[in-house]
Design brief:
mainly alpha; 2 domains; elongated
């Protein structure tokens, strides 16, 4: 293997192109993956890196030369020749300019390739060195063990020392990762002219990113571990205070009890709202139930009156119907008589017209004739008189007939309306009965709900009251208890009406609203006290952090929570 390593170095001395350097690196990487910890191999890789850096220096010099030649060429192409180049893009000058650009790109790609191989070799070397010699330092698991061995309030100073060492190592580790990432990502812009180099570039870039991800992942784990160590140092200071500082211990116990009440108070307030809503709804239902008897009595009276009026309207309708039938019969008779007289008058008129035509007389000549002199004219005159009489008869009867028809329609409409009113009143009475049953059912549900809510609320109120007494806290709830008529504590605070009296339910609602306001006021007072205690405890804790760990670390621990 030593011969192999010597062979690498000799070949690196002669290698001048990306593909040659990459081939040698692949052999080095294969050996390194099998070697494990090997300082001698790491030293060989370090020497290989030095020789690649020499090659990079030569490539950078070549790049500068190529850029200088290109600049000189562009200066030569200015003026008249430049005019030809701009107007004749396929001239020899244009081809030469393109060749210069290609040479620059190729040399720049070689420099970027040198940097990539150096970066990958640096990561390989890290795997072969002992943790204390690596720029990445120890892994996260090792640091976890080192911190864990000092995880005690008695060893907090030693714990802080280890945390500071971890932070310093993370700074070096991060700078190493950032430099590697810069060179690896810069290689993505390398523009090789040969297709095989371009293909090799894509493969090497993907492999390098994967190798870097492993190095960066360990850095992330160590950074997370350091952030956790800040929080842990804060916890260790708290533990130390709980053991040594009586005021801090008392504050912590009180804060703990107060925090424990948060859920209790939220539950009390939630149940109080439910009780208030249920009592409000029950009071409304009780009011509805109380109004139902009067409403039923009114509907029954209205229904009886409607039924009587419906019968009366029906009788009136029958009378109007009989009268209308008589009038209709008389009208039909008069119409029939009119039709007959009209037919006779029309026949007489035709004969009369024929008579006038035959005799050559006019209607004026016949008006003075006697019936004996002209029977046809006499018959025509008689028919006309009868027709006029029949028309006068039907015209004089028509107003009475129309009046009878209108009276019948009015009576029929009144009877129908009264029948509909009777139906609606009966329907309302039926609906009222159903509504009474439904509301009564709902009242039973409210009774059950109030009982269950009271059973849940009572022990919570007792816990709240007991805590207040233990702490010496006097609030609205205590005042309500003292105002109670008995000595049963919170029992009398939870009225539960047994009947359907809306007055009782409204009184219960008012009591629950008062209870909710009292609990809210006490909770607000406790919250203010909790914040004051927490601030006092935090101040004691922060001062102790400063004493044990220094100002800078104390600030960072406070920020980390």
């Amino acid at each position: 293997e030593n011969m192999t390593q010597q062979d690498w170095l000799e070949r690196l001395q002669e290698a001048t192109e990306y593909r040659e350097l990459q081939a040698i690196f692949s052999e080095i990487a294969a050996v390194a993956r099998r070697a494990g910890r090997d300082p001698q191999l790491a030293a060989s890789i370090d020497e290989a890196i030095r020789r690649i850096e020499q090659e990079r220096l030569r490539d950078e010099t070549s790049l500068q030369d190529a850029q200088q030649q290109h600049n000189e060429f562009k200066q030569q192409q200015s003026g008249v020749v430049g005019w030809f180049k701009r107007h004749l893009p396929f001239t020899e000058a244009r081809k030469q300019d393109k060749a210069h650009q290609q040479e620059i790109n190729e040399q720049r790609a070689e420099v970027l390739a040198d940097n990539l191989i150096i970066a990958r070799a640096q990561m390989l070397k890290e795997q072969l060195l002992e943790p204390d010699q690596r720029r990445c330092g120890h892994d996260a698991g090792s640091w976890q063990q080192q911190l864990g061995s000092h995880d005690s309030p008695r060893l907090i100073a030693e714990y802080a020392t280890q945390a500071r060492r971890l932070e310093q190592e993370n700074i070096v580790h991060k700078a190493f990762v950032d430099a590697l990432r810069h060179d690896i990502e810069a290689f993505a812009g390398a523009a090789f002219s040969r297709p095989e180099d371009q293909h090799r570039k894509n493969s090497d870039l993907s492999a390098a990113r994967g190798e870097l991800e492993s190095v960066a992942r360990d850095l992330t784990s160590k950074q997370t571990l350091f952030e956790g160590s800040l929080k842990r140092m804060g916890d260790l200071v708290r533990d130390e205070l709980l053991q040594s500082h009586q005021d801090y211990r008392d504050l912590s116990q009180r804060i703990g009890r107060t925090k424990g009440l948060d859920h209790c108070v939220e539950t009390i307030q939630s149940i109080g709202r439910d009780l208030t809503e249920s009592a409000t709804a029950a009071g409304e239902k009780a009011t509805q139930l109380a109004a139902i008897p009067d409403r039923r009595h009114q509907l029954q009276r209205d229904l009886e009156q409607s039924q009587w009026q419906a019968r009366e309207r029906a009788e009136q309708h029958e009378a109007m119907l009989a009268r209308h039938r008589d009038q209709a019969t008389r009208y039909a008779e008069l119409q029939s008589q009119l039709n007959k007289v009209q037919a006779a008058a029309q026949a007489a008129h035709r004969l009369y017209q024929a008579y006038l035509a035959e005799t050559g007389q006019s209607e004026t000549d016949t008006t003075t004739m006697s019936p004996e002199a002209s029977p046809v004219a006499s018959e025509h005159l008689r028919c006309q008189q009868e027709l006029q009489m029949a028309q006068r008869n039907i015209e004089s009867f028509l107003p009475d007939y129309e009046a009878a028809r209108r009276e019948l329609q009015s009576a029929e409409s009144a009877a129908t309306q009264e029948k509909e009113r009777e139906f609606h009143l009966a329907q309302q009475l039926s609906d009222l009965q159903k509504n009474q049953s439904a509301v009564a059912h709902q009242m039973e549900d409210h009774h059950q709900q109030m009982h269950e809510l009271s059973q849940r609320l009572r022990p919570l109120l007792e816990d709240f009251d007991r805590f207040s007494q233990e702490w010496g806290f006097s609030g609205k709830l205590q005042q309500m208890i003292r105002r109670s008529s008995s000595h049963r504590g919170t029992h009398d605070l939870l009225p539960s009406p047994s009947g359907n009296d809306s007055v009782e339910w409204n009184a219960a609602r008012e009591r629950y609203e008062e209870l909710s306001r009292a609990i809210a006021a006490d909770a607000d007072k406790l919250e203010r006290q909790f914040k004051a205690d927490r601030e006092q405890a935090r101040q004691i804790w922060h001062e102790r952090c400063q004493q044990l760990l220094g100002d800078d670390l104390a600030k960072r621990i406070a920020t980390a929570g």
